Amino acid sequence: MRIPKTPTTLMATIYRKIFPAVDVELQKWEKRAEQIPNVELRTQALTSIQSKRFHCQGGGVYALLAGYQWKVAIRFIVAYQTISDYLDNLCDRSTSMDPDDFRLLHQAMTDALSPDASIKNYYAFRQDQIDGEYLADLVRTCQKTIRKLSSYQEIQPILLKLQGLYGDLQVYKHVQKEERIPRLTTWYEGYKKEAPTLTWYEFSAATGSTLGIFCILSYALGGKLSSELVASIYEGYFPYMQGLHILLDYYIDQDEDLEEGDLNFCHYYANKGDLKYRLVWFIEKADQHVKGLPNRRFHEMIHHGLVGLYLADPKVKQLHGGNEMTQFLLKVSGPEARFFHWNTKLYHKMKKER
To answer: Is-contact 255 315, C-beta < 8 A?
Structure first.
């Protein structure tokens, strides 16, 4: 599997190779989810797969960095992202507001990155528990991939750091509403030196992405990893690339989150103009920080692809000023973003017609 260097070859490879392989893996986990004995856990597992499929599709693109091991990378990415989406649903749609519950649930994602970690009862602090080993098998699938990596000792500290930040975010943003902002702002203060140019809500957004993990893991599977490359990927992706990713994700979900009472970091900007200015700033910063990575063209296309992909979501049409924001950000991001935007819109149209 060669790494594409043009938007046209990238999209052709995604449609012909990546999406079909992701669908095979998702179908497997969907069948497993259908067999979960507990009704609530089964509902949230199935809903997370059906409504967040595009997360696995987007993450699956990083498998192109894994060379002949690309299918192994797909298997890991789909399993890991499925854990993430499932746990997010359990926290978002749960009657629980217990931070210990959220922490233990997300221990599954840490264990998935730790080849020798034992499987735990991740549901110990909640009433709904019997999932037929669904979550445990997702963890085991990730661990199986990691055991194949001779270089894992080199990448584990960074992967666990990224996952630790992600886990913290999931705990703090899902507790009682009155506790969320105090917890998140206090947490940010401890990391302010690492991201002094960000607000607390922008830092929080940057921790909510799995892209850095998928990038590092795929390079490792491709046998191209070194300690220098790990450091470059971390600096290239955190906080700007990951921050852009999640801010766009939150941008399209604003109305939905408002209706459901969920935390949305885009709501903390002073006004629409401030939000627009900062999204442009993240686009420019992400562009600067991926220039030093190997396979630079690939990472630039991913960066522009994020802008095109998210702004092509049908939900954008429902947002106040959504069309204006879309045209402005596409212009800033450039012709590649517009290419990915129209390709994604065509994909949505074809999918709807089918």
So the answer is: yes
